[in-house]
Design brief:
By secondary structure, this protein is mainly alpha-helical. It has two helices and no strands.
Length: 114
């Protein structure tokens, strides 16, 4: 039972690390883009038209960029951890099936002379 938990935990950790690497390679720029664009669209709708480049708009855009990057990062790490967990369960199922097929060789028990 402990080996099963260890296999699943290891799969989860490896999946989360691979998700973080995927985020660093593929996710920062989309997070930056969607965060800034989403913030500008939201501010455009709130204020009813094109915006001037004031300090408030720039601060809101920077905050939107941070939120976009954090959201994309958390999604990729969580999805990676879920895939790793699924692979951990699959590997555990395969190894337990192999263990059941191989007969265990036990040494014959010796009888004690009285």
């Amino acid at each position: 039972m402990k080996a099963r938990k260890d296999m699943v935990r290891m799969g989860t950790k490896v999946g989360a690390v691979l998700g973080a690497i995927a985020f660093l390679v593929f996710g920062i720029i989309p997070g930056f883009y969607f965060g800034s664009y989403g913030t500008l669209v939201l501010l455009n709708h709130l204020f009813g038209g094109p915006l001037q480049a004031t300090a408030l708009v720039r601060i809101a855009t920077a905050f939107g960029i941070l939120i976009g990057i954090i959201c994309v990062g958390s999604v990729t790490i969580i999805v990676g951890a879920i895939f790793g967990t699924v692979i951990g369960y699959a590997m555990e199922a395969l190894t337990s099936a192999v263990r059941k097929e191989i007969p265990s060789e036990k040494a014959p028990t010796e009888t004690k002379a009285k």
